Amino acid sequence: MKRVNFTLDEATIALLDEIAERYYHSNKSLTVRAALESLATHLGHNGWIIAGFTPVVAESEAECHSCHHTYPPGTTLYRPVFTRGRAQNALQEIPKEVWLECGECVSEDLRP
Ligand SMILES: [Zn+2]
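Above are the sequence and the zinc ion SMILES. Below is the predicted complex in structure-token form.
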């Protein structure tokens, strides 16, 4: 066990008090731990996430990884760039297969 000291605003303290009282017998340490565990679950596991895309002109017929449409040679497709990160859909291993996305699917991926 280790004692930590941090600063919270009034509204957050009120929320902490309320949740601690209602669900954790007024134990604020337990409340903060539960909140962090819940946040960790929400953020997902450590792995590889897509940091961005680089455009590639397909040299031969290529299939989109997401929508599986086939595109003719000369189409601009997008190759994902992976980085280490934490997310619900993080991959355990960096994919070995060719991974190209079409413009439409990349636009959808960028939604928050
Ligand atoms: Zn697609």
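The CA atoms of residues 8 and 14 lie 10 Å apart.
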